[in-house]
Write a sequence for this structure.
């Protein structure tokens, strides 16, 4: 695709937006329905695409991709009227009579750039929000999930209004050209490295950005919980999509006693989830490409493997693996792992764990397995992260009422449900006053004693 072609695509979407095509609620509903129909009528095609891209099981594609978006669509359809209704705002007495309200209007043409790891959910999630808010959208799926990208390129024009919604396939070169165009919002999900490139390009046009990035999401476990049940949830969270999940538990912190108890339980949990040999399980995914496989196998050398550890380069298979004795400055503890390796770090207790988290970058998610209310409160007070989940991993991300996003190096901005609608809207403030009576006379010059005493007393009390 040439630069002219990409510029032309964006210009056409802008024309559609300026012509008002995307604004009526009926149009927005049609698009949301289109997404629903595309996913339900072509579920098998998306399942096959994800099987090809990540060797994902069809059930997991339903659970972690299609169902998440169908729920978003249903929620947006149900909420559209209330989200778009003007919101009355109370006026201070000094501005009465009058009326104030907020209108949430679409921004214009938005760009959604998605990664490969959940290539349906992470592309369509923001798109549902953008369309519900009445925008024209350019979708850029990840080239690292080529079968899913091709499915979108073929199906989106069939199901969504091609005047306002377009897929642009491609890698860094095409995305660079896209980023040269002027958009009204850019929603990027992926690595912090590319996040910086996106933010820099957006700054040239003063385009607002949402950056959904990654980082190291810690887990803390204490002995107040059923360790067997905790181990299963942690093992599942780390193994889903072979650990290639932005909110996957990255590393685990516990006291020596808890570590000794939980290591065999994590091993048992993997067996329960994927059988004796996860490589033969149809439910266990593969590493997306050879380069990432090589990086992860190198990280295996950063500690002592106490569970799992088997790899197969040809199959890009890495077993769910637990490591101990990892040095704090080893790459596995400095970089986001983004694979099925779980290093365990010994801490002296919750305060030690909190201090370590607080000393690092703010994570996307924090998982605390404890039934001790004072420990829960200490983690909430002492750390900052995009989300905190107690006694569970990952699933906080699927709750539509919980805004999803990062803080600091794990990202900026939020989506899911109304948070996504707000991200893609301009909250326009409107004030309307009749010309009579002239209540503003009280603040107009000349600044007589009367105005002055009004400013010092009454106005302050009334506003
Ligand atoms: P990726 O390689 O698919 O890249 C993401 C997007 O950026 C792709 O569409 C790609 O084409 C584009 N891109 C790549 N290089 C570019 C460049 N030089 N210029 C412009 N665009 C470019 O995905 P990834 O970055 O490998 O994804 C993994 C990372 O994403 C992890 O850090 C993970 O934690 C994070 N992530 C975050 C979330 C979240 O919701 N917060 C979700 C999934 C993944």
């Amino acid at each position: 695709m040439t630069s002219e072609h990409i510029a032309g695509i964006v210009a056409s979407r802008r024309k559609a937006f300026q012509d008002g095509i995307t604004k009526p609620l009926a149009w927005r509903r049609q698009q949301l329905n289109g997404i629903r129909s595309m996913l339900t009528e072509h579920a098998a095609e998306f399942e096959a695409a994800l099987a090809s891209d990540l060797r994902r099981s069809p059930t997991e594609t339903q659970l972690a991709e299609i169902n998440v978006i169908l729920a978003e669509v249903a929620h947006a359809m149900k909420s559209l009227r209330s989200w778009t209704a003007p919101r009355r705002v109370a006026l201070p007495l000094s501005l009465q009579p009058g009326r104030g309200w907020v209108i949430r209007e679409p921004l214009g043409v938005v760009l959604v750039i998605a990664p490969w790891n959940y290539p349906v959910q992470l592309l369509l999630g923001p798109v549902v929000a953008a369309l519900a808010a009445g925008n024209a959208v350019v979708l850029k799926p990840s080239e690292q999930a080529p079968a899913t990208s091709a499915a979108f390129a073929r199906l989106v024009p069939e199901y969504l209004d091609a005047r306002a919604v377009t897929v642009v396939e491609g890698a860094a070169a095409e995305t660079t050209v896209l980023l040269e165009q002027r958009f009204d919002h850019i929603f990027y999900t992926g690595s912090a490295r590319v996040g910086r490139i996106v933010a820099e390009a957006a700054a040239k046009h003063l385009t607002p950005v949402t950056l959904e990035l990654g980082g190291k999401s810690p887990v803390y476990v204490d002995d107040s919980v059923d360790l067997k049940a905790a181990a299963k949830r942690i093992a599942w969270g780390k193994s889903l999509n072979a650990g290639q999940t932005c909110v996957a538990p990255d590393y685990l912190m516990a006291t020596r006693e808890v570590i000794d108890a939980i290591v065999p339980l994590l091993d048992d949990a993997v067996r329960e989830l994927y059988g004796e040999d996860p490589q033969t399980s149809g439910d266990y995914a593969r590493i997306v490409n050879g380069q990432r496989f090589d990086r992860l196998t190198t990280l295996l050398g950063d500690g002592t493997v106490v569970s799992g550890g088997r790899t197969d380069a040809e199959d890009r298979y890495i077993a769910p693996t637990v490591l101990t004795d990892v040095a704090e400055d080893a790459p596995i503890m400095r970089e986001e792992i983004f694979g099925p390796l779980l290093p365990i770090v010994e801490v002296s207790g919750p305060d030690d764990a909190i201090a370590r988290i607080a000393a690092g970058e703010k994570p996307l998610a924090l998982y605390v397995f404890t039934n001790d209310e004072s420990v829960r409160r200490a983690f909430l007070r002492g750390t900052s992260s995009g989300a905190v989940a107690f006694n569970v991993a990952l699933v906080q991300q699927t709750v539509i009422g919980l805004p999803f996003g990062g803080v600091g190096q794990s990202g900026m901005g939020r989506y899911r449900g109304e948070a996504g609608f707000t991200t893609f809207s301009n909250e326009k403030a409107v004030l309307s006053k009749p010309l009579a009576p002239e209540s503003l006379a009280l603040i107009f010059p000349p600044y007589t004693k009367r105005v002055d005493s009004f400013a010092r007393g009454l106005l302050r009390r009334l506003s």
